[in-house]
Specification:
Elements (H helix, E strand, L loop, with lengths): L33 H11 L12 E10 L18 E10 L14 E9 L2 E8 L12 H8 L10 H10 L4 H7 L14 E2 L4 E4 L5 E10 L8 H10 L3 H11 L5 E9 L1 H11 L18 E10 L4 H6 L12 E2 L4 H17 L75 H9 L2 H15 L5 H14 L1 H15 L12
Antiparallel strand pairs: 1-2, 1-9, 2-3, 3-4, 5-7, 6-7, 6-10, 7-8, 8-9
Helix pairs in contact: 3-12, 4-10, 11-13, 12-13
């Protein structure tokens, strides 16, 4: 096998990669050994800051193929013909753990898809669950801190986690999903994905519908038992990464069927009036019986990255990246992420992170952004300002963003705690589970709560389970008594 000649980063041939330049055979080292200095300097800087959330991840490239016509809902070009294909990159991840954490921890899984469309990149950065723990982004830093490490002990803290959840009953729906079988998926290939938020589509006539995106695995749902997940965390902490990489390398390409739920604004108003639920609330789902899933296409992963750091670690997603024909919604959590994700990447990867190959659009692009670290071409000789044009904004919204929607209400801080229904959908999820899955759910919860040292926290959380379904609360309380080995914990009905 022919060896490629080793050079410095500037292309200068390296004379000796085994022996440093020294004053005599015993040293000391000479500062003029630039290859040694460059090698150590780069090594010291090999780690970019890890993601605050979704730090441990895996990814692959593939394609999305349209199988059904949805042009009545959207003018987005990637959907303009059945059979049309678009290149994609998909990054899976755990949420709360650090980069060295185990793939099999009980945690939601990130499911972030980038579509390299002819109108630019569309980033659908979702999870493997259709709901989330909170509905307002102002709570997000506090929530994530409770899932990380206690600043005093530097240990994960059951007291912190359950203190937050027990004071935020809106989290109950996602907590129920998290401690069910789906809280420990069997790798990344055997789980569904969701855009989770409410988004929108806009057609050629400027008509908007609200939508939710679903990715249904063709490999079938498979989950790990709590015991097997713990075993794998100790014996193969990179289990999901290995499974995905090996499957693609063997030609066993994972696929997901892509679906939409669609809601007109008139349907939204009628549904909200009937149910009392907010269609833009991330802690809620749209029941399939009210809004059936509509088939759209197939997503396939068929190529592993050549370099993990370049393609997976430096992948920088932002839900703000939508293309003409796609749009946002008043979902408060989505609105917060439109700012936070891009801002995080500016800090983590750098101001020119969009120029890296995995992040660069695959269509022509032009802007007036200049300078900063890693400004590779820096726009060349093109002007670094835009000429002011009298016609201003494209009123029909064929550019970035969307055509806009009507706003309602006065500006202010609205606290709906105690007036919104945080229990029905969590109870519906519990009742939907087969008896054996209910048993595992309540066992998992009892095991987790047994580590909580503050009785008031346990009482608050048991009250939430009971309000969702009396049997739900009773089973967790019964099993928690067995786990804790003490007197039964009382349930304060209606505690907040």
């Amino acid at each position: 096998m022919q060896q490629t000649r080793l050079t410095t980063a500037s292309g200068i041939p390296v004379a000796d990669n085994q022996n440093s330049l020294t004053a005599g055979p015993r040293g000391p080292l000479l500062l003029q050994d630039f290859h040694l200095i460059e090698k150590l300097q780069h090594f010291n800087r090999e780690r970019i800051p890890e993601r605050v959330v979704h730090a441990k991840g895996s990814g692959a490239f593939g394609s999305f193929t349209v199988t059904h016509d949805i042009t009545r809902y959207t003018r987005a070009k990637l959907f303009d013909a059945v059979g049309k294909t678009t290149d994609v990159f998909l990054r899976f991840s755990t949420v709360g753990g650090e980069r060295g954490s185990a793939d099999t921890e009980r945690d939601p899984r990130g499911f972030a898809v980038r579509f390299y469309t002819e109108d630019g990149n569309w980033d659908l950065a979702g999870n493997n669950t259709p709901m989330f723990f909170i509905k307002d982004p102002i709570k997000f830093p506090d929530f994530v801190h409770t899932q990380k490490r206690d600043p005093r002990t530097n240990l994960k803290s059951a007291d912190m986690m359950w203190d937050f959840w027990s004071h935020a009953p809106e989290s109950l729906h996602q907590v129920t999903m998290l401690f069910s079988d789906r809280g420990t998926p069997d790798g990344y290939r055997h789980m569904d994905g969701f855009g989770s938020h409410t988004f929108s589509l806009v057609n050629a006539a400027g008509e908007r519908v609200w939508v939710k995106w679903h990715f249904k695995t063709r490999q079938g749902i498979r989950n790990l038992s709590a015991q097997e997940a713990v075993r794998l965390a100790g014996t193969d902490p990179d289990y999901a990464q290995r499974d995905l990489y090996d499957a693609i390398r063997a030609g066993d390409y994972p696929r997901w069927d892509v679906f939409l739920q669609v809601m007109t604004d008139a349907e939204r108003q009628a549904w909200e009036q009937r149910t009392g639920w907010n269609a833009f609330d991330l802690t809620k789902v749209w029941p399939h019986k009210d809004f059936p899933r509509i088939p759209v296409g197939v997503l396939e992963l068929n190529r592993n990255p050549d370099n993990y750091h370049a393609d997976v670690e430096q992948a920088a997603f932002s839900p703000a990246n939508v293309v003409p024909g796609l749009g946002y919604s008043p979902d408060k959590m989505l609105q917060g992420r439109l700012f936070a994700y891009h801002d995080a990447q500016l800090y983590r990867v750098g101001t020119n992170h969009q120029n890296l190959p995995v992040n660069r659009p695959r269509c022509p692009f032009h802007n007036q952004q200049r300078d900063g670290a890693m400004a590779v071409s820096n726009g060349g000789a093109a002007p670094n300002y835009a000429v002011v044009q009298a016609n201003g904004t494209d009123a029909r919204g064929f550019g970035h963003g969307d055509d806009g929607w009507a706003l309602e209400g006065a500006a202010g801080r609205y606290d709906a705690r105690g007036t919104e229904d945080d229990y029905t959908q969590a109870g519906n999820l519990f009742r939907l589970l087969p008896a054996d899955e209910q048993d595992r759910l309540t066992t998992n919860l009892a095991n987790a709560l047994s580590a909580v040292t503050v009785p008031a926290t346990i009482e608050r959380q048991l009250a939430h389970f009971t309000r969702a379904d009396p049997r739900y609360g009773a089973e967790v309380a019964r099993k928690l008594h067995v786990q804790r080995g003490g007197a039964p914990v009382s349930v304060v009905k209606g505690a907040a």
